[in-house]
Structures are given as structure tokens and as C-alpha cells.
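For reference, the entry.
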Amino acid sequence: MTYFLFDGPEAAPVTILLAHGAGAPMDSASMAATAKALAAAGFRVARFEFHYMAARRYGHRKPPPRAETVNPEYIKAIADLRAKGITGELIIGGKSMGGRVASMVADELFSKGEIAGLVCLGYPFHPPAKPEQLRTKHLTDLKTPTLIFQGTRDEFGTKDEVATYGLSEAIQMVWLEDGDHDLKPRKAISGFSAADHLKTVAETVKAWMAPSTSSSSGQARR
């Protein structure tokens, strides 16, 4: 059974399932702050870890696997979450690699009505300094309603680069001024704090989901 960390009201109409990035666990400062911001907006938030990251807690220093190899773990996490009695609308997503994995399983789940949407926080469009190694092929025809939050100085994909990728119309890009890969800005330069950007994330997701929480279909946002 997948182990989850929960934030937010148990009776929330929308639950957001988040997976971590390649190098930091589900209880990292960035993940915790994101979960709390979403919870403050009224969402139930569940965080989980892929096996390789969970193993690190017991001294097993396993490197991150290829993202696609953990797709079954994400699908199992969804099933385990439902087994815990989570009902209502479900959004999947995550930080960096976690969001990428979610994006690879999203369409199958969305077509079955099992999820309402996808939220990616700092999508790793390519490795740093390797813009030719794109991770976007499946994003060109993605059908799942999607929000991608990206900092304007994210070295995994800049605004100018992303504009050339031909992403699916189902994807809405939300650019956070001066944010890095963790969406953190330099306040002295941008005037924004990390808390400001996370509040924007939460409020944007809330507004995006508003039509579906007042209807029987999670597809209303489109």
C-alpha cells in the first residue's frame, strides 16, 4: 500500500495527488510548502514517493530511474488513494519528474474518467544545458486538461524555448516571474516571494477547477 502525506480538508471536493522530483523527497521544503498552499485554497492534497526515493530513507542510495519505468507506481498510487476512500474529483501531477510521470499516464486515466486534470510544477522539458534532449513528444497531443507552472528562469525549459514546442491546446502554461525550477524567485529582483508564487499556483488551480466542482464533469474547464 502506498504511503501518503495528507494536507487540507478531508471533505474537500477536489483531491490533488502529487509526486516528488528526481532528487528530493515528498516532505522536502518545496513539496511541503506547495501542499500547504494548495490546502489553504481548499484542496485535499496527497503526496507520495516512488520506491527508489522511499528506499533512501533506509540507507539505500538508489539513483532516479528512467521516468517511464515508474509509471506503474503512479497508477498504483491512484488506486491506493481511492482505496482509502478518496472520492470526488482527482487531479494528478507533481514536481519536475513527478509531474512528467503523471503526464505520461494522464490520458489513459482521463479517457476513463478517473482523473479530472493534470498539474505540473516545474516541468523538465529538457535536462539543464541540453535543450536538444526534449521530453515533449507526448505533450504535443495530450488530451488531459493541464496546467504547467514554470519559472521564467527555469533551466529545464525557458519561456522562449517552450514557445517553440508546439504543445497541445489542452495545456495552459503559467509563467511565474523570476522563478527557478522550484518556482522560487529572487525577491530583491522580482519583488515576489516563494509564498507569492505558491499562492498564485493555488489560486490558479482553484479558478481552473471551479467549473467542474459545480458540474458533474471534470471536463468542463475545456
Observations:
- The first helix runs from residue 29 to 40.
- Helices lie at 29-40, 51-56, 71-83, 97-111, 159-162, 187-190, 194-213.
- The first strand starts at residue 5 and ends at 7.
